[in-house]
User: What shape does this take?
Amino acid sequence: MQTIIMPKMGDAMEEGTLVRWLKHEGDTVQEGEPIAEIATDKATVEIEAPTSGVLRGIRVAENAVVPVNTPLAYILQEGESLPAEGDGKTSGAAQPTAAAPQPAPAPTAVAAAPQPAPTNGEERILASPLARKIAAEHGIDLRQVQGTGPKGRIVERDVLAYIESRKATAVPAAAAPAPMPMPAPAVAAAPAEGRAETLTRLRQITAQRTTEAHQTIPHFYLTMEIDMEEALALRQRLNQLDESLRVSVNDLIVKACAVAIEQHPIVNASYQNGQLVHPSGVHIGIAVAVEQGLLVAVLRHCEGKSLRRIAQESQTLIQKAREGKLMPDEMTGNTFTVSNLGMFGIEQFTAIINPPASAILAVGATKRVPVVQEDGTIVARPRMKVTLSCDHRVLDGAVGAQFLQTLKQVLENPLWMV
Assistant: This one.
């Protein structure tokens, strides 16, 4: 017998959503065959059968949110039977949001514990700090909110969903306690002026991490203009030589950044627990816009890869990101990040650093502009502006400027990348 559990797909993952079962109760499955889809904070991935057998004892329903390591189902061999905890008919569909607490009824003391002190019940409520903060701002009693986190813990999305349900049933905002009067008008006005939308899991984690990064990392910004005439010419020649390979401007930038980082390795370091950590490779993250928000796909060991290899891997990762099939190790461990909005016509912008990296390069559009040459003549040249966001705990202005100078030299003399 093999137990199928909610896998832990990343250090920060505490729970996952079982999106749908690809196999059903009693189906015969083969080793390596996809049997279910789960959603993590960043992507939807398939769970494969670890062995061949019959799928039995499905304990978690579709769209259920459960903690990691929660048993989802079992694969049985001929003659095997379900364990006692997975033998009941009430396991799967009856408990869609809390599979983990199911075994709890056995010790009667657990059910009896809250009864002696009902007046102090609020301290017994499991809730995240952010959930408590939002509840306090809106005058919400957390005892009225159903938690969907691990062990029934109330998390941000639960409070937001409760706010939506309260608005839908026209509960007046005046019911909020007097100490917090300011948020009440916004809650009352929302139905008339617009609507509130619960954030997707990806948007929630993006909101949390970008807020933390912007508040805790001392950012400063450096902008430089780069002539792209030679780099674009190289790209055109490479794509003509091999029509199956489409080298993008972003691929050129990633490779150029890897070359520049090798000359300025401090840009690849990160600030962790009061120390500078120097990784063993140059792992460049590329920001990818997807329907649910923003993902960062990581190209590993770019310092040792050719431009052709970077282009191939980049295409694969971007496709997987858009299909929601990136694996956790393809979204973590970046030591530098490139965010490119040039394809949208954005000329210049600043980006928030994506930890653990200490810098991120914001890339604008390449446009033909009039340039005054040394002899005084004016010619049209393709120019691109890039802005480097730096963590001042790791990088100083001079170091960031030197990195950009090297990046400019590499892109304006692209044979250094070949």
Notes: Residues 86-123, 170-189 have pLDDT under 50 and may be disordered. The chain has three domains: 2-86, 111-198, 218-417.
